[in-house]
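Please check the following for our workbook:

***
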Amino acid sequence: MIERRRYIRIPEDSQISYKVVRGIKSENFLTRDLSQGGIRFFIHEFITKGSILRIRLTLEKTSFSFEALVRLVWITEDICNDRYEIGVEFVDIPPEATEYLIAYIKSVLKFQS
């Protein structure tokens, strides 16, 4: 099977909060995995594909935290756990956060080897 992703993903359990840009609801969750291009995590509400979210991600192992805008790319219902799994891509992320993510992912991959 051919890998279609542009970026390498690493498993990551870090705190993430989000707010739909035109909404007022905000919640905290744990990420499932992370890449330079986006994040996968669970939420408890249905959000339509293409929605823009403002997120705050704190990498647990380093305490590095940043805010970014992301676009919802896909959403899948997890009926057994009454939640939705979503994949988002970064659309506006501070340059220093991008640099940090690249270095962080490389260090995790190096440690896993």
In short: The first strand starts at residue 10 and ends at 11. The mean pLDDT is 86. Residues 23 and 53 are 9 Å apart (CA to CA). The helical segments are 95-112.
